[in-house]
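Reopening this ticket.

The earlier resolution said the output was attached, but the attachment link was broken on my side. Pasting everything inline this time so it's all in one place.
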Amino acid sequence: MGFLEALAEISKYIPAVEKPARRPPLPTRLMWTALVVILYLIMSEIPLYGVVQGQQQFDILAQMLLGMNIGSLMTLGIGPIVTAGIVLEVLVGGGLIELDLTKPRDRKIFMGAQRTLALVFAALEAAAYAFGGALWLGGQVSVSTLVKLLIVLQLVIATLILMWFDELVRNGWGIGSALSLFIVASVVKGMAWQFAGPVMVEEGQYYGWLAQVILARDPAILRLRLPDLVGLLATIVTIMVLIYLQLMRVYIPITSPRYGSIKTRIPLNFIYVTNIPILFVSIVVADIGVFLQLIEGIAGRESLAYKVMSGLYAIVAPPHGLLDAASRGW
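Inline output:
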């Protein structure tokens, strides 16, 4: 039995959502889809037992793209599930593991292995967060081992629930992909919070741009590591450009000698995009941030490992606005 077969065999003992015997009507599928998104948003606001939410700050963009909310049940977000899928796709696509995904048996092995591997990654990432002290300021070594184990258990169970949500939607009970819906919900929530979040982060500075304009009577054209007018306008322009490029078509002329040299044109999309590369980069940035906190909790900020990792994180983590980019010397 190979490695993937062993993982697929283990997945048989992991509860899964079965496909419906008959395709549910559209209103039922819409109801299940909406319910899954609502439950995800609720879970993202439920704090982990043993952790005060918001004690640590991680890259905001990576959190939004991976559906994460540090300190809550969604601390890991969809990261372990997406990571498992990317790793297996790279291994299969690179020929390191022989699987023909066009065959039902091999596809079943792939899906089973992905489910098991997602929980393995969830356990490893959760252990790094909990035992590395990444969820507490200064590492907080006073936290008991039992509490840390409970945190790992909570995060693994939360990942399993997300897998069930995805299977529920993907197997025909809902519409589309639950993971994509989680990303959309997380991004929309994050953008709304950055636009109008009324929380005061420091004296005279509110987190949301609109809150800063209304409550502090400040146009907030440029702010350091806080949402500002320049960032809002850049976001609007970026969205418009992406929509324009997505709607563009390139017409390829073809001729068919078989039918009397008939000429026609085939429309092709100008760009073919997927969110996988962005998710992969976000996972890398998030993991580097976790290891940075892990090293800080174990070796301290004066260690060589911390300095190397912090330098790497400063390079790969995206800047939060023009002032932040200028402060880095970009």
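Reporter confirms the inline version is readable. The chain is about 60% helix and 5% strand. Residues 12 and 112 are 7 Å apart (CA to CA).
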